[in-house]
Amino acid sequence: MSAVQVDFHILASADENARCTYACRVVEKARERGHHVYLRVPDDAAAGELDNLLWTFRDRSFLPHAVDAPGAPDEPVLIGTGDAPSRGEPDVLVNLALTVPGQPDQYARIVEIGDSQDHVLRAARQRFRIYRDLGITPEHRTVEGA
Q: What is the CATH number assigned to the segment(s) 5-143?
């Protein structure tokens, strides 16, 4: 396994909207640092919500992005439901899905975002164990007031 860095950011709240907005902020910071980002979501409905939220989460924000689908432009931020986007080679994965992506070592960094909802916490704990079993030592931090 390569030296992928995995960070778990667990929001103290149980607010799904706060979790999505926090993901947008993480994507924004990664883009400011020149990274290409894959924002992995659990389903098409979540992809649509994040597509809209990336335009509106902050005044004057502009994050070029696209939902990963046939014919979509290759943007520096792709939103999708698969383990990896259909094109491009993002170096950062922001994971809102509740499962570990296949081949996590294809990314330099993975940011797992959770919150305090029971099912989200259980899934985060399971992903943490899976990463450890793969020889990756994930970092963990609790995010207050996000």
A: 3.40.50.10110
Residue type, 139: E
Domain ranges of the chain: 5-143
Q: Considering Cα of 44, then 48, then 29, then 15, what sign does the dihedral take?
A: negative
**Per-position b or e across 48-60, b if 16+ CB within 10 A of its CB:** ebbeebbeebeee
pTM exceeds 0.85 for this model: yes
Dist. CA 89–CA 84, nearest whole Å: 9
Task: List, in order, residues 6 or more apart from 86 with CB less than 8 Å away.
Answer: 68, 70, 80
pLDDT digits (tens, 9 = 90+) for 52-64: 999 888 877 778 8
5-51 per-position pLDDT tens digit? 999 999 999 888 899 999 999 999 999 999 999 999 999 999 999 99
Q: What's the rounded Cα separation, in Å, for the pair 143 and 100?
A: 21
